[in-house]
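Why predict the complex rather than its parts? Because the way molecules touch one another can change local conformation, and only a joint prediction can capture that. The input here totals 600 residues.
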Amino acid sequence: MPDVIAVGSIGLDTIKTPFGSVKDEFSGTAVFFSVASSLFSQTGIVSIAGTDIQKKHFSFLNKRGICTKGIQVVKGKTLRFSCYYEYDMNEAHVLKTDVNVFGKFNPVLPEEYRKARHFFIGAVNPKIQTKVINQLEDPEFVVMDTKPFWIEKSRKTILDTAKKSNLLLINEWEARQLFGTPNLQKAAKEALKLGPEYVIIKKGEHGSLLFTDGAYFSAPSYPLETLIDPTGAGDSYAGALMGWLAKSRTVTESKLRKAMIYGAVVASFTAEGFGLSRLKSITLKDIERRYQEIKKITCF
Amino acid sequence: MPDVIAVGSIGLDTIKTPFGSVKDEFSGTAVFFSVASSLFSQTGIVSIAGTDIQKKHFSFLNKRGICTKGIQVVKGKTLRFSCYYEYDMNEAHVLKTDVNVFGKFNPVLPEEYRKARHFFIGAVNPKIQTKVINQLEDPEFVVMDTKPFWIEKSRKTILDTAKKSNLLLINEWEARQLFGTPNLQKAAKEALKLGPEYVIIKKGEHGSLLFTDGAYFSAPSYPLETLIDPTGAGDSYAGALMGWLAKSRTVTESKLRKAMIYGAVVASFTAEGFGLSRLKSITLKDIERRYQEIKKITCF
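Output of the joint prediction:
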């Protein structure tokens, strides 16, 4: 039975960066998350795909021990997303999003998933996020993400849903937008008031920040000289963080700090190649090496 | 005799932020730098001001042990700068810059200054920076800054001058602009190839990065919830860094790491008030407290 359940999109992405391009590449939040998480813990996916999804995609996940029982395959096309990056890869320029069958995503968790310990609920419609949370039996740790589209559309529902999560995991722009302040410290304070014990704000190349009552942690990113395609870096950060946490059993602030560094390390590998190309080939030894490097670059 | 010499502007700033405004406030690179540096080491200023500069400005500096012998006062008006910040204070919106007498800045260092050990050469015309460096007798540590205006106008001269410095201290946008790459790792590598042993890239609220041959350090910023006016934060970062380094005698990579944290701490105080208002009232005890806090927020 999987320890970590990821609820989120499966997609076929078309990406162009100054270093090349890929077409209909197997991706999406649940895919990047689970590939990263499965490096540490048994992971299951809750998602939806169209009949154009291929057998090789499922067997790729299954070979990594990822449970695909929670993926509904329905008539129609899988979510398709295309974007390009200019030389400064901090911003994705979206060309097109065809939600396709993902528009019908209405997750019903398999019975055994409901008993899992750790849940990642990706940036889907907050109403669906609430529905998922209501299906959980006795979760130890629920992590919730969101995105600008939903903040604009359903801010109130997001804030309500956040109350039911243990960790709100968002990026810096989402934090500013969601809490109406440019100051991340203030935004995080507001977020903690809602109910979650922890807030993590991802800042891409600038690292990530952890906030909890009375404590604060600033994690750097891994210094990358070769950045090929940042797509999926944020989701694989979340996956590694949660996979490592689930493996280490109890969640504490001190363990979350370490988990964030594992997140940064795995995200750095993701960005070194297109799609999953680099991520799928790394070993725990590769990860450990970069983890130790980050230890050195933060020491004073 | 001062241990640290700061070459840069003296100005009278008019600043507006969502939290208030000040008019003709005593400021400029050399002022913020020296007030911060004087917390740790004897500091002297090389600059130019007009006859509208007031006695109280000099006595303020002198009371802090800052040597003003290197400040030329000439007929005319002092540099005047005005800008405003919107609620997101990451960007200063410049309204007006009247260089006034600063346009005639042609520094001739007092004899005793030339024998000092540590020099900070602010973001002035790179030709003037070279002239200053040529006046130094046996400097131990020369730090050079620059700004977008000069990168656009005199890129080649900046690169030539950087060769003669020990540390290039610039912000992230300047690094990207100067070395024509969005990747800070690559930019720093190019900078090191020029000759300086160290490169520090300041990233404001995201901290700062140190690069040297074979080593790398990522320093966080101090988490500020009350940001009133960021003017001078970068210059006081440089001042604290160099003042602390000069006090600790020899410059090593390990000491630079600590110096960067002192820089971050002092910059955080600067941004908590308009102009010098907060910076001028802090004690070494206040600084040490935040230094220890940063130790805690980076530990994993």
